[in-house]
Amino acid sequence: MSIIKIIASLNWVLISIYGAFVIWALLQKANPANDAGGGEWEIVLKGMGVFLLLLLAGLN
Predict the structure, then answer these.
(1) How far is CA 31 from the centre of its chain?
(2) Which end of the chain, N or C, is surrounded by fewer C-beta atoms within 10 Å?
(3) Res. 33: pLDDT tops 80
């Protein structure tokens, strides 16, 4: 197996692990009391996580 295939496979494994964490974060209830900044940042960070996941999968 060539080194490129190993790197590509490892990359997909890491993206899958990141995707599992993003899905876990999305399933958590948004609670404004958890956020010291005002309540909306939790939703923004979840959206950025989904965007980054789609970007990584698309670039791969």
Answers:
(1) 19
(2) N
(3) no
